[in-house]
Q: What sequence folds into this?
DNA sequence: TGTACATCAGTGAACGCGCGTTCACTGATGTAC
DNA sequence: TGTACATCAGTGAACGCGCGTTCACTGATGTAC
């Protein structure tokens, strides 16, 4: 348990940043249950009333933690897209794999991101971050149609295209559901023989292939 | 807020049942956050130490609530299977629809069922109930292959068949992911124009059709 | 049919816990002149 | 260059809350004889 260093003895210097870092660490180590304002303050080495100056509410803190997680996921998706630009099937599989890897590495971050009841729905930072992830997903998943790229700005219009709408709903559901069931251990029985890593590797590949074929031909 | 009647003044008669009913009602009305032992006791009209005689732990109570929810889902899936026995595509769509309807009607029950961190993983009632749901899903989703029916007993063996394994992983992920994203409001932007009910009706149909085609041809 | 007794379910008061919130305070920083 | 002052971030003690747990108890039920 590390504390983000202070500049001076009294004022922290960047407590907001330290609190966010503490929150992320707590989430990784103890899950949602461990994520309280007091615990974050403790971990940041500060009295428990101090966070009030930076976050009005625990939900505001959670929102910004989630926003950071969305940013990370977006970055992972972008990276996977860059490294598999040509082949449409390889691209879908790469996106799939990036989503799965992220969720397996940060399971509680992932859970938080999709539990809006814990968060402040009006938080702008969160809204922008999740919109970016969403646009990136849409863009990646529908690129093999040969459509123009989707950005966070053009998303609202483009989503009215019924084919694109259907495709995104289908592909995102596939990937998201796989990850959810995987994280909650529902596939443990499936993976018994081969081991979990092999199972994931295999099923991501076959599911990605199926998904890709479907999006091209349908 | 109703209380399940007592037989006598002192002893309750069937407090275990009353506590489970209270828990289900609380879950529906207030979500996971409202589900505490004390709240259940209060609602069952009993002192807050009374539940100890029936549930060692809040996680045991939650487990049995989840088990009941699994039972309900199983029943809904069975019913949907019965009413669409012939056509494989109609059958998949019916299963899909049953899963979606259940989750929309009891969103917090649905969330609880797939959050094993709140429950007692060793609870036998829960294990059996979820195994039954799972077998029913597997059976419904793979029936169009013409395979023999899968039951909770034969599941562990049958799942070793790689084709069946792939099929179930794919189809279940699809349905489950769709429901998760729907429940958490991720599709709200998609449904803007047509309204949520119409969106659900449409996408369940098209996704089900795609799923069905994939499971037949692949 | 009646009595004695064991068993068990529910009571209610008490305890400790960690949480978020409030508030008067204090120490540091920066700005006006 | 120095001084006065406003601003603001962090302190620490106090409060109330609902939670789960414990424990001596009491009322009801059923069983043995």
A:
């Amino acid at each position: 348990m590390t504390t983000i260093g202070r500049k001076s003895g009294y004022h922290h210097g960047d407590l907001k940043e330290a609190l966010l870092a503490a929150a992320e660490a707590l989430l990784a180590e103890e899950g949602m249950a461990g994520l309280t304002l007091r615990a974050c303050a403790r971990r940041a080495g500060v009295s428990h009333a101090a966070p009030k100056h930076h976050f009005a509410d625990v939900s505001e803190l959670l929102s910004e933690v989630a926003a950071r997680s969305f940013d990370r996921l977006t970055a992972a998706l972008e990276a996977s897209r860059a490294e598999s630009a040509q082949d449409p099937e390889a691209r879908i599989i790469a996106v799939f794999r990036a989503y799965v890897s992220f969720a397996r590495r940060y399971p509680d971050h992932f859970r938080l991101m999709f539990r809006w009841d814990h968060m402040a729905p009006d938080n702008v930072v969160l809204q922008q971050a999740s919109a970016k992830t969403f646009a990136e997903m849409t863009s990646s998943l529908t690129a093999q149609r040969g459509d123009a790229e989707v950005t966070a700005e053009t998303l609202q219009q483009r989503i009215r295209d019924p084919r694109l709408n259907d495709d995104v709903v289908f592909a995102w559901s596939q990937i998201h559901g796989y990850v959810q069931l995987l994280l909650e251990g529902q596939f443990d029985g499936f993976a018994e023989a081969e081991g979990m890593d092999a199972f994931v590797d295999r099923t991501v590949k076959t599911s990605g292939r199926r998904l890709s074929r479907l999006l091209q031909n349908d």
User: Anything to note?
Assistant: Chain A has two domains: 1-55, 66-217. The interface with chain B takes residues 31, 114-117, 134, 155-156, 159-160, 165-166, 168-170, 172-181, 184-187, 189-190, 193, 203, 206-207, 210, 214, 218 of chain A (CB under 8 Å).
